[in-house]
């Protein structure tokens, strides 16, 4: 899990990449409504037609009040969601909560946010309005420090909701200023001789910011007079079908669709085709993905990079805020492209190509997971999460039988990258069809059981363990049989049946380690064995097994299992009294978990590090580390994984620190650590300052 801060503050607001024009009155109103010391209503909605600037205004307003929310201003982008029931998951992901639990998502958020003061910005709610209503109804009554800012084409309709209906920009002032600023990128200069024509252009575009921006960039190829004349033309006949669909909608929405359609008409035919096909992407895409998904027929892959650059020049496609090598479509522009894709009769075919692209990507990620490519695949999984989710949803609705294979691969990546609920959702659906025996089913069963283990859902994990062991034996793959032992032994260990767990885990044959997901499971069997020895107090046996895992991890180039092994070796060092080695190995474990954004692993490493630091005699630093660790455990939903042994060990260390520095000094240092942002806390722990 990576931390997001802005200027040292918690939160994930993106930096503004373009200047902000106008909206002084609206910003003043929002300043007051979002100020915890002034506004009394805690649900504020910005409502308006597509393209009117709701998101830009919300982000600017949220940025202005950041200092009033010490626990962060958090943007939740809802436009990538394709199905109902996912808004809560989107909030958990935006807050970077590595939720390990199985309870309702709203309860997880409420527990984490208890006593905090934060602002949630729910952006683009109109297509998931009922879910947003349910979220607000569940959270606002129990979290007095929470405010929610909504952008939507319609309001939520809840009591106490404060609604700002966002009108287009005033033409004579803000609309002209916006046009001039965007057109300046083409070399245009506003002056007294052309101001009247610019006002006429903005008036014909109803002052809608997106329509104005799309028109302004056209001055690179049209004169202002030509631009004004083209906007006066009737909507081209080829757009009549799309215009008719908007005929019952608000006039300004029709104006925007007309403006987008006019921009669409000015695109070359292959640019229009690419625009339509790009609409299947969720959350962003890179050039290679566009080439694989969008090529075909008259559109060769070799032309896509150049055509994409042209669409960027025309503001149809935007470069991603955080990564200039990735691209995105604004919601309204994407909707227009999706309409055209349907009109062309290509929607199903292109969505299948999108699914198959991400199916191949997930398959390759699993095939290379237990190698030196592991960290890169973790980053790729995080970056492509929205597309993987959309592709997985598509696979689950198709009758061609690929859903199980894809769920096994995508679920495995999600399990190891912190998306446990997504993994559980897709695996449950894929396995509910009672698929026949085969490697895909065995891998899906293993991952579903491994998800249950991390969630602490031990009864469910036991059931999946039995089913996976039966499938592995039926399949006849000895590595799959070893992998299944991880589920059985891990469930026994977490249930406190340590001797039985050791019998199961130690009986597995030592086979060559594979580079794929089952190879990762082979290493996790040995990690589970070392961990169980440690819980029994047999530190030297735990060390021997953990050091074997470390050597195998280095040989493979992987980090996931190796970082857990580093932590176990650190605990064995403590038992020996080798404090210096314990601190060093705990920091190594923390660094390894950080590479993979493994919040549970990082929390465990922080507890071990705190124990080493207090043993070294630095009680104040140990107290801060315990505070940092507590805040990281809070992100997982299950402190110390609900393990009685881990909880008791942490309490012993806390008592020791209190005895060394006193209760008052402990509470002060602990509080300092508890309030550190995630990244700052890990940096403090890792670097000793």
- The side-by-side strand order for the widest beta sheet comes to 4-5-6-3-7
Unreliable spans are 1-7, 234-252
Could you tell me the CATH topology label of the largest domain.
Answer: Serine Threonine Protein Phosphatase 5, Tetratricopeptide repeat
SS content category:
mainly alpha
InterPro entries: P-loop_NTPase (IPR027417), TPR-like_helical_dom_sf (IPR011990)
Keywords: ATP-binding, Nucleotide-binding
GO molecular function, one term: ATP binding
Protein name: ATP-binding protein
Question: Can you walk me through this structure?
Answer:
By secondary structure, the protein is mainly alpha-helical. The chain folds into five domains: about 5-165, Rossmann fold, CATH 3.40.50.300; about 170-265; about 265-345, Arc Repressor Mutant, subunit A (Orthogonal Bundle); about 345-535, Tetratricopeptide repeat domain (Serine Threonine Protein Phosphatase 5, Tetratricopeptide repeat), CATH 1.25.40.10; about 580-689, no CATH class. The chain is about 65% helix and about 5% strand. It contains 33 helices and ten strands. The strands form three sheets. The protein has a five-stranded parallel β-sheet with strand order 4-5-6-3-7, sandwiched between helices. Helix 13 packs across helix 14 (about 300-315) and helix 29 packs parallel to helix 31. The longest helix is centred in the middle third of the chain and has 21 residues, at about 345-365. The protein is globular and about 85 Å long.
């Amino acid at each position: 899990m990576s931390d997001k801060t802005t200027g040292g503050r918690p939160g994930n607001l993106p930096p503004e990449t373009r200047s902000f024009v106008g909206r002084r009155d609206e910003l003043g109103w929002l300043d007051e409504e979002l100020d915890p010391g002034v506004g009394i209503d805690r649900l504020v909605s910005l409502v308006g037609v597509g393209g009117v600037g709701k998101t830009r205004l919300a982000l600017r307003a949220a940025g202005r009040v950041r200092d009033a929310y010490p626990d962060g201003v958090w943007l939740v982008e809802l436009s990538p969601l394709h199905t109902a029931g996912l808004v809560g998951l989107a909030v958990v992901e935006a807050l970077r909560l590595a939720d390990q639990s199985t309870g309702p998502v709203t309860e997880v958020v409420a527990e984490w946010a208890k006593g905090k003061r934060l602002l949630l910005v729910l952006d683009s709610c109109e297509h998931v309005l009922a879910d947003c209503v349910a979220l607000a109804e569940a959270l606002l009554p129990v979290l007095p420090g929470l405010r929610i800012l909504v952008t939507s084409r319609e309001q939520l309709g809840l009591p106490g909701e404060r609604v700002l209906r966002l009108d287009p920009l005033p033409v004579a002032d803000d609309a002209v200023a916006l046009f001039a600023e965007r057109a300046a990128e083409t070399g245009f200069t506003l002056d007294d001789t052309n101001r009247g024509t610019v006002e006429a252009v903005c008036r014909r575009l109803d002052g809608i910011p997106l329509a104005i921006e799309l028109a302004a960039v056209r001055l690179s190829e049209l004169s202002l007079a030509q631009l004004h004349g083209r906007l006066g033309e009737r909507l081209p006949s080829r757009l009549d079908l799309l215009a008719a669909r908007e005929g019952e909608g608000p006039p300004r929405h029709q104006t925007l669709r007309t403006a987008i359609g006019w921009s669409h008409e000015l695109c070359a035919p292959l640019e229009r085709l690419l625009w339509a096909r790009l609409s299947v992407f969720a959350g962003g895409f890179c050039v290679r993905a566009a080439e694989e998904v969008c090529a075909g027929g008259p559109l060769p892959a070799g032309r896509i990079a150049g055509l994409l650059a042209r669409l960027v020049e025309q503001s149809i496609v935007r470069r991603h805020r955080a990564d200039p090598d990735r691209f995105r479509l604004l919601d309204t522009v994407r909707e227009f492209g999706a309409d055209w894709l349907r009109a062309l009769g290509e929607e199903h075919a292109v969505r299948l190509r999108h699914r198959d692209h991400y199916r191949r990507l997930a398959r390759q990620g699993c095939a290379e997971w237990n190698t030196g490519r592991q960290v890169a695949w973790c980053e790729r999984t995080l970056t492509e999460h929205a597309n993987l989710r959309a592709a997985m949803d598509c696979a689950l609705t198709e009758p061609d039988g690929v859903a199980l294979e894809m769920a096994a691969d995508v679920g495995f990546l999600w399990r190891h990258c912190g998306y446990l609920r997504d993994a559980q959702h897709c695996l449950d659906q894929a396995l509910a069809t009672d698929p026949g025996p085969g490697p895909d089913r065995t891998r899906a069963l293993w991952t579903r059981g491994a998800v249950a283990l991390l969630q602490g859902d031990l009864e469910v994990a036991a059931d999946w363990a039995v089913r996976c062991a039966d499938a592995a034996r039926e399949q006849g793959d000895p590595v799959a049989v070893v992998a299944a032992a991880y589920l059985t032994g891990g469930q026994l260990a977490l249930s406190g049946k340590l001797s039985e767990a050791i019998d199961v885990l130690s009986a597995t044959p030592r086979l060559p380690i594979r580079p794929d997901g089952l190879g990762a499971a082979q290493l996790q069997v040995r990690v589970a064995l070392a961990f169980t020895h440690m819980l029994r107090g047999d530190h030297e046996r735990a060390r021997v097994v953990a050091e074997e895992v470390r050597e195998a991890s280095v040989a493979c180039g992987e980090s996931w299992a190796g970082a857990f092994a580093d932590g176990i070796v650190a605990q064995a060092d403590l038992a020996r009294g080798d404090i210096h080695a314990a601190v060093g190995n705990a920091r190594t474990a923390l660094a390894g978990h950080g590479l993979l954004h493994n919040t549970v692993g990082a929390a465990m490493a922080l507890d071990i590090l705190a124990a080493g630091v207090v043993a070294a005699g630095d009680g104040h630093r140990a107290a801060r580390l315990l505070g940092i660790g507590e805040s990281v455990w809070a992100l997982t939903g299950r402190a110390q994984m609900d393990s009685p042994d881990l909880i008791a060990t942490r309490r012993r260390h806390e008592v020791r620190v209190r005895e060394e520095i006193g209760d008052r000094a402990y509470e002060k240092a602990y509080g300092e650590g508890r309030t550190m942002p995630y990244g700052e806390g890990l940096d403090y722990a890792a670097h000793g300052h």
